[in-house]
């Protein structure tokens, strides 16, 4: 039996320069362990929803309830223990001018955890090249290696919610496909609750448990687990865009 | 030539803590902290005033360091609370410090020639012993600074310089790290000011003018020469310290060389400014290569 973990309650985000709210009266519940794919055209509010969750955007309208607590009142730092975000930009995910090991140390230090037995072995599962580059600056890794490393750090101490904001969109198709499959495998294997934004409807169908479609800041459609099985990519595109 | 080298080395020695402070702000925190122009004088002024009042040189030195750290804290406060741009915050603090330094010193110049200092006993014994004691004091500061940079705290400071937004999202208190970083680099500048005042025998209200620029130019030059030779990441922190030392030494070598060529002192800053511009230009060109 899945338990509700996260609930958006009448969530609204406005910007002074925009007439229409960026997000308007969003109501949605995310179950524990679910991978919810958020679909929508550019400007529909997908990324803004994730930025409200991790604290990069602020609002006073509505609530985001995580485990019975409205996290909108928490600072970015206070949310850090339970929410981790990966975006398509490596500089949003990693310290580019520090080594892989130093990036790991910062995460490990913050979680006050013991050092893992072999960081190299742990990273090998994400990308074999990473295992030999512990003392290399992250800036010197390829884009695919950087995103694989960012994913490895994100799930090292699994967060309550993992936010994946088009995290494969800057990669070449083959690398993106590989990283998406790896991400899905890990979040399902470790039962991590995730919100994933993408424009790839095939990924949404293949890897999402449920789909939330946004249009012009409003909830446009909700596709549940059972409904999703009967959809083709074309049908999903027609419903969500 | 030996005289030129000795003059260069002794002048460089007193400014090594300053170079470390500028290395911290410019290279690690990625901020140009102009507070240093004022905190250098603050360190010298506080030390000179307290020493001439008969207070122990050791205590006067510690108070001077604390005052430097407080100046850095104020600059960080302007950025954190006042939301002032880092460069402007430094210029503003340095501007304010001119009055503060005058108020502390009471006059534009304090003579220390007949006042006991940290090094006066050693220098009274012999010049060699005097310089050895200065080198020892600077060495202790370098070792403490290097140890700090190698610690988890040092890693957090470097992460702050690289990406403060990400560090905040990871749950670190970036407000505290900004205060710590700016306090530390101004503490080091104040240490240099206090040591310099003891060596040259006076504290002067104008002795800090252009110090930040000189330090940045020297560090850029040093890094331009040293860092391309360093391939291993674990040698990076040590090589940055070495680059700071070599940069500041080369700067004084050129300065003393120009003086010995009987260049009119009126044009000295003009020539040095052009030289610094060339250093910075070369380094920028190098950095922009693919």
At a glance:
The complex is a heterodimer of chains A (241) and B (290). With 241 residues, chain A is an alpha/beta fold.
Could you please describe the fold and organization of this structure?
The complex is a heterodimer of chains A (241) and B (290). Chain A has 241 residues and is an alpha/beta fold. Helix content of chain A is 34%, strand content 24%. In chain A, helix 7 links the parallel strand 7 (161-165) and strand 8. The radius of gyration of chain A is 18 Å and the shape is globular. Chain A starts with a strand and ends with a helix. Chain B is mostly helical. Chain B is built from twelve helices and two strands; from the N terminus they run ααααβαααααβααα. In chain B, helix 2 (35-52) runs parallel beside helix 4 (86-105), helix 2 (35-52) crosses helix 9 and helix 10 crosses helix 12. Chain B is globular, with a radius of gyration of 19 Å. The mean pLDDT of chain B is 89. Classes of the chains: A alpha/beta (241), B mainly alpha (290). The interface between A and B is medium-sized, with 27 and 19 residues.
Any key phrases for this structure?
heterodimer; A: 241 residues; alpha/beta; 6-stranded mixed beta sheet; 4-stranded antiparallel beta sheet; 10 strands; 24% strand; B: 290 residues; mainly alpha; two-stranded antiparallel sheet; 2 strands; 78% helix
β-strand percent of chain B reads under 5%
**Rg of chain A:** 18 Å
- If strands are numbered along the chain, what order do they take across the biggest sheet of chain B? 1-2
* Secondary-structure element series of chain A: EEEHEEHEHHHHEHEHEEHH
Distance between the termini of chain B: 40 Å
Number of strands of chain A: 10
Major beta-sheet overview of chain B: 2 strands, antiparallel
Query: Using only CA atoms, what is the Rg of chain B?
Result: 19 Å
Model regions low in confidence, pLDDT < 50 over at least 5 residues of chain A: none
| Strand ordering within the main sheet of chain A | 6-7-8-3-9-10
Low-confidence spans of chain B: none
- Count helical runs of chain A: 10
Task: Briefly note the structural class of the backbone of chain B.
Answer: mainly alpha
Task: Report how far apart the termini of chain A are.
Answer: 32 Å
């Amino acid at each position: 039996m899945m338990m509700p973990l996260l609930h958006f309650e009448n969530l609204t985000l406005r910007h002074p320069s925009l007439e229409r709210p960026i997000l308007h009266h969003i109501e949605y519940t995310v179950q524990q362990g679910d991978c919810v794919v958020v679909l929508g055209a550019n400007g529909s509010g997908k990324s803004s929803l994730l930025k409200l969750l991790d604290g990069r955007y602020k609002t006073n309208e509505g609530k985001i309830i995580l485990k019975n607590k409205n996290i909108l009142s928490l600072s970015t730092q206070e949310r850090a223990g339970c929410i981790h975000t990966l975006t398509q930009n490596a500089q949003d995910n990693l310290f580019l001018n520090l080594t892989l090991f130093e990036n790991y140390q910062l995460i490990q230090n913050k979680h006050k955890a013991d050092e893992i037995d072999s960081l190299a072995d742990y990273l090998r599962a994400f990308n074999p090249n990473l295992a030999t580059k512990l003392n290399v600056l992250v800036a010197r890794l390829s884009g695919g290696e950087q995103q694989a490393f960012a994913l490895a750090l994100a799930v090292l101490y699994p967060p309550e919610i993992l936010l994946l904001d088009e995290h494969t969109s800057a990669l070449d198709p083959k690398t993106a496909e590989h990283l998406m499959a790896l991400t899905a495998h890990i979040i399902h294997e470790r039962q991590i609750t995730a919100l994933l934004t993408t424009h790839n409807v095939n990924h949404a169908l293949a890897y999402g448990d449920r789909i939330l479609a946004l249009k012009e800041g409003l909830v446009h459609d909700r596709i549940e687990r059972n409904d999703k099985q009967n959809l083709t990519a074309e049908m999903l595109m027609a419903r969500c865009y | 030539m030996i005289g030129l080298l000795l003059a260069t080395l002794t002048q460089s020695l007193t400014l090594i803590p300053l170079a470390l402070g500028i290395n911290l702000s410019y290279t690690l925190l990625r901020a140009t902290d102009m507070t240093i122009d004022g905190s250098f004088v603050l360190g010298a002024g506080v030390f000179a005033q307290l020493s001439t009042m008969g207070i122990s040189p050791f205590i006067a030195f510690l108070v001077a360091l604390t005052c430097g750290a407080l100046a850095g804290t104020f600059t960080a406060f302007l950025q954190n609370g006042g939301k002032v741009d880092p460069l402007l915050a430094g210029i503003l603090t340095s501007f304010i410090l001119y009055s503060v330094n005058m108020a502390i010193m009471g006059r534009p110049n304090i003579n220390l020639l007949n006042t006991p200092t940290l090094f006066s006993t050693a220098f009274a014994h012999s010049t060699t012993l005097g310089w050895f004691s200065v080198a020892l004091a600077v060495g202790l500061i370098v070792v403490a600074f290097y140890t700090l940079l190698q610690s988890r705290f040092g890693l957090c400071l470097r992460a702050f310089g690289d990406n403060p937004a990400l560090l905040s999202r990871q749950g670190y208190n970036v407000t505290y790290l900004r205060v710590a970083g700016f306090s530390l680099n101004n503490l080091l500048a104040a240490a240099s000011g206090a040591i310099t005042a003891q060596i040259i025998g006076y504290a002067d209200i104008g002795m800090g003018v252009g110090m930040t620029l000189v330090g940045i130019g020297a560090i850029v030059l040093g890094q331009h020469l040293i860092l391309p030779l360093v391939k291993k990441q674990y040698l990076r922190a040590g090589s940055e310290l070495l680059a700071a030392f070599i940069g500041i030494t080369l700067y004084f070598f050129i300065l003393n060389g120009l003086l010995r060529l009987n260049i009119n002192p009126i044009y000295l800053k003009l020539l040095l400014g052009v030289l610094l511009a060339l250093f910075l230009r070369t380094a920028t060109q190098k950095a922009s290569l693919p």
